Amino acid sequence: MPIFRSWYWDIFLDFIVFHKLAESKLSKNLEGEAGFPDFVVLERKKSRDAAKYGCIEAKRPYDNMEITEQIEGHLNSYGKVIYTNGLVWKFYKEKKENEKVYTVGSIKSKNKQAIIWEPVDNWYELMSFLEDWDWKS
């Protein structure tokens, strides 16, 4: 129960902080054509005019990973997008050009809670690609 309570309060507080941030003038420049992505990658600078390098959109593991209007809007606004459900990682640069896709697992069709993991090498390839991903180019 304490673990659940801790998790619940963390989510609740994150929700409150996000909505307060979304309402603030400081965050208005982070809003894109499709609203706020889950994460915005910015220049390391403490300023409202920090350059936006891209964004990350995270979905639930069982969510469909097709290109949606939301992802198209993020591509139009941010140029580079990492789109993931934790099991499939899609990397985009400029206008729907799929740079790379990594699959580290999938949901079992009969049991929506069971994950079928891919070989560990897929994780290593994903980590290597993430380390080399250049947000600035």
What does this structure look like?
With 137 residues, the protein is an alpha+beta fold. It has one domain. It contains three helices and seven strands. The protein has helices spanning 2-23, 69-78, 120-132; strands spanning 39-42, 52-58, 80-84, 88-93, 97-103, 105-107, 115-117. Strands 1-2-3-4-5 form a five-stranded mixed beta sheet, with helices on both faces. Strand 4 and strand 5 form a beta hairpin. The longest helix has 22 residues, at 2-23. The chain is globular and about 45 Å long. The chain starts with a helix and ends in a 5-residue tail after the last helix. 14% of the residues are buried.
